[in-house]
Amino acid sequence: MNSRDICPDCSSARVKRNGYTHTDKQNHRCKECGRQFVLVPENCLISGAERMLIKRLLAERLSLRGICRAVQVSLRWLIDFITDCYAATPDDLNVRLPEQPDGVIVRRLNVEADELWSLVGKKVNKKWLWLALDAKARQVLAFHVGDRSGRSAKKLWNKIPAVYRQGATFYTDAHAPYANVIPRAQHRVVTKESRMTNHIERFNGTLRQRVSRLVRFALSFSKKLANHIGAIKYFLCQYNLEITATLPV
Question: Are residues 138 and 183 in the same domain?
Answer without folding.
Answer: yes
